[in-house]
Amino acid sequence: MSMNRLRIQMTSKCRRSKNVVIFLVCLATLYGILAPSAPTNSHAATQSNYADRVPSLNLNSRPLFVLGMLTPHTHTDYRDTQRSTWLSTIQQLKPELPFEIEYKFLIDRPTHDTVLENKKYNDIVFLNATSEGRGVKFGEKLYLWFKYIHEHFPDALLGAKVDDDTFLCVPQIFKRLDELKSTTLYYGWTHGKGKRVTMDTRMDEMFVVLGKDLVERIAKRKYCTGKKCDAKTDLIDTNFGGTSLGSWLSIYDDIDFQPDNKRIVHMGRGQEAALLQNIKPGFCSKYVLNHKSSVDAMKKLHGHNKHVLSSSGGFVGAVTGSLFSGDVVRALPQQSLTNRHTYLAALDKMSAYDNWAVVTTIFSPAKAVKEIASQSNWCLVIVADAKTPPEDKYLSEMGINETSSNRVKYLSVKEQSILYPLLSDIIPINHFGRKNIGYMYAIHHKAKYIWDFDDDNIGTVDLNDFKTDASFSYVTVCKGTQHVLLNPYPYFGVKETYTWPRGFPLEDIKNKKTLPKLCNSRDSFSLGIVQSLANQQPDIDAVYRMTRDAPFDFLATRKSHTPFVLPRNTYAPFNAQATLWLAPAFPYMALPISVNGRVSDIWRGYVAQHFLHRKDVRLAFSPPYVTQERNAHNSLRDFNAELDLYQKSKQLVGFLSSTQADYPADISEMYKSLYTRKYLEQLDIQFAEAWTMTLASINQ
């Protein structure tokens, strides 16, 4: 049937525009390099000859963990052994570990040999601390290291210090810390009893882990070595690192105190015989680290630590596997979002419009962007970031003229922070999530329709096909054949029956119940979202691309196929590449920012459907309006980026369609629930709060 039968008059067009909103966002970022600094006598830790990388939050959607190994300059053999044992395992398993891990050896001051060593390995930080004094100034060195983490790795979720005679079981130690991670974490082997941190009840300094908030608190306090020190405000050194840290943290009552003595082997001098009894196969199946390890002991433990990383993220034996449960496995973090701004949203001089298109890109203007800009009934927001060509150059390359300039807005990073300060604070620079600020800008400027697209998808929907003031023809699931999960692709004509969209649970690819019988309908309904399929490079996952033929076109056309409207309480994945959002769905446009970009839009889509079902607002899939000329991709990299989709999609739909998901009142509450189930990380709790607060400010 002709798509003209779907027609609903459009009563509004893009009126006048003034400026250009370009929201460009980098999908992934490599970090900037700091200039090397020479050793000094100050308390500023330095790294000779080689630069440190300052990480942006959330690379590959994993929190950052920064680890320092305290070592005398003479312990070359210990450093080399750690590099060749458990540190090499970190490198080997880097893509699969639950953290992005940065590590440095911590040495008092540079010597000729250690400078040469650092030129070779680029993994030493010189603390510029004296090695003289009782306890070898361990308290001072601990302070300098945590200050270094705060200054050079400000987005690190966890910071840790370990002795160079300690063997860490990798990946077991990081699996354990992933279960316990929080911004106020205090983890290690504890002395004393109770939960109240004091000089006597504290973690041993041989291995201690602090959450981001505690690292920041220590870094911002004054380190006092004189006689006039205030224990409530200053950091007073007790020489030994553990007692110093216990004293410094004793003033806080919100510490997430997590002793792990049963999993940590910590023995003192004179216990070598007992220690040797632990050096045997299976050690790392019971424990996470061994202190007082000799060079030979570390090598033996490394040989014994035979590990296999399961595909679902659990560390298991060689012939077993595990499944992601989706159950509640962790508590909510104690700290919530802090808003220091006097306003959350400010309008610029651009006028209000009905129809907005939002895009992010790190490239010069693509054909898709130019095409949208040329259409008189669309206003365009391009979200810029640090890597985006400057505004003048970008707009010049777009060929913007006096007429089209009224419909295009280039939104610089600076403007983003001025117009939406809280959102801008939460979303990292060089991050696909900056697109959220583009959505907010369009909503703020009275959008009724938002075309959410990628710069490699050429084309737009015809709004006349999706007006909601008249009935139109569509297909939907026939009564009595409904299944919670629906696969929309086969209806639109595919050569292979089992063709599925990215984000569709792999377990259900061959489930015939997801391919229900469809019936024609003209019944009225409330429309919230329209996903346009794409020809040439449809939205399929890496598993499909590596095992089946792609690219391909759908057989369906706008003349041959009416849209497919999903019934209430059914789910299908949809993307952020070519999607029309109508006003009832705007509150649910938020793209999660703590997961990979290839997961974020799918999670967003499933969550949005949950809330739209509550309002009886529908999702529709349409024949292709766009052709995707896909930017360069590596299928194996995409596969790694999509692991959450393969492992968690079915469980997520199960949760969202259950009564357990009934209580979250809004996106903010839902994201908290998803955090406790390990679909999202802590950053998204803060982001969701910023999103809902900013949206509320706009709607006042």
From TrEMBL:
InterPro entries associated with the record: Glyco_trans_31, STL-like
Q: Which Pfam families match?
A: Galactosyl_T, STELLO
**KW Transferase (keyword) present:** yes
- Gene Ontology CC terms: Golgi membrane
MF terms from GO for this chain are: hexosyltransferase activity
What keywords sit in the KW lines? Glycosyltransferase, Golgi apparatus, Membrane, Signal-anchor, Transferase, Transmembrane, Transmembrane helix
Predominant localisation class: Golgi
Membrane-protein topology: Single-pass type II membrane protein
Where does it localize?
Golgi apparatus membrane
Q: Hey, which family's this protein in?
A: Belongs to the glycosyltransferase 31 family.
Listed PANTHER family: EXOSTOSIN DOMAIN-CONTAINING PROTEIN-RELATED (PTHR31362:SF0), GLYCOSYLTRANSFERASE STELLO1-RELATED (PTHR31362)
Know the name of this protein?
Answer: Uncharacterized protein
| Organism in which the protein naturally occurs | Mizuhopecten yessoensis (Japanese scallop)
Q: What is the lineage of its organism?
A: Eukaryota, Metazoa, Spiralia, Lophotrochozoa, Mollusca
